[in-house]
Design brief:
5 strands, elongated
Length: about 190
C-alpha cells in the first residue's frame, strides 16, 4: 500500500467498496500509485487498472480493457467515445466479494496484455467528425489552422468531440470561439 493514496480510501460514499477493491488489486502483485487523483495500479511501470468513484457506482477501470476477452461480459465502455478503457462497475461490497476470483482473472489478463506489448487500434483524428463551423474557421484563420495542427492528436480529438457534441450551430460556434485562445496557446480542452 502506498501511503500517498490512503486519503482516497478515507472519504465518500464508496469507502467500503473501494477498500475491498484495493485489497483484491494489491493481492495481484501490482504497484499502487496516485495518478489523476485516483489509485492507479501498475506492473513494471505500465498502467493496468485504476479505482475510481462516481455518484452511482465505483469502478475498476482497465486501461486496455478493449483488448480483454471479457468472458463474464462484465466490462463496460464508459461512453461511445472511449476507445481503449473498460470498467467493471460495483454498487455494493457483496458484488466485489462474489466476483473476486473473476476480477483477479481480468487483472492477470490485463498484465499479460501489457507484457505482450499489445496496443488498442485507436481511431485517427481525421476519422472524427469536424463540424462545418470549425472547418470554416480553420479555412479563414491560417494561424488557427497551424495551431490546431500542432496540437497532439488527443487534444485535437478532445476539441472535435466537444465541438461536435453541441446540437445547435450557435452552440458549436460559441464553443469554437471560446476555445480559440487555448488552441492558439497549444492547450488542450482540459489543460
Amino acid at each position: 500500500m502506498n501511503p500517498k493514496v490512503d486519503f482516497y480510501f478515507d472519504k465518500g460514499k464508496w469507502r467500503e467498496e473501494i477498500t475491498q477493491l484495493r485489497t483484491v488489486v494489491l493481492a495481484c502483485g501490482l504497484t499502487e500509485e496516485l495518478k489523476w487523483g485516483s489509485p492507479c495500479y501498475t506492473h513494471e511501470s505500465k498502467n493496468i487498472v485504476l479505482i475510481h468513484v462516481f455518484k452511482e457506482y465505483c469502478a475498476l477501470l482497465f486501461f486496455k480493457g478493449a483488448l480483454l476477452k471479457d468472458a463474464r461480459k462484465i466490462l463496460i465502455q464508459q461512453s461511445e467515445h472511449v476507445q481503449a478503457a473498460r470498467q467493471i462497475r460495483f454498487t455494493n461490497v457483496n458484488e466485489i466479494v462474489k466476483l473476486e476470483r473473476s476480477i483477479k482473472g481480468y487483472i492477470y489478463e490485463a498484465i499479460e496484455v501489457e507484457r505482450a506489448g499489445l496496443k488498442v487500434a485507436l481511431k485517427k483524428t481525421k476519422e472524427f467528425p469536424m463540424p462545418a463551423e470549425f472547418k470554416r474557421k480553420l479555412a479563414s484563420t491560417p494561424k488557427l489552422k497551424t495551431a490546431f495542427a500542432a496540437l497532439t492528436p488527443g487534444r485535437q480529438r478532445g476539441y472535435l468531440l466537444f465541438f461536435s457534441s453541441a446540437k445547435q450551430a450557435a452552440t458549436r460556434e460559441a464553443r469554437i470561439e471560446k476555445s480559440i485562445p487555448d488552441i492558439m496557446k497549444g492547450k488542450g480542452l482540459n489543460d
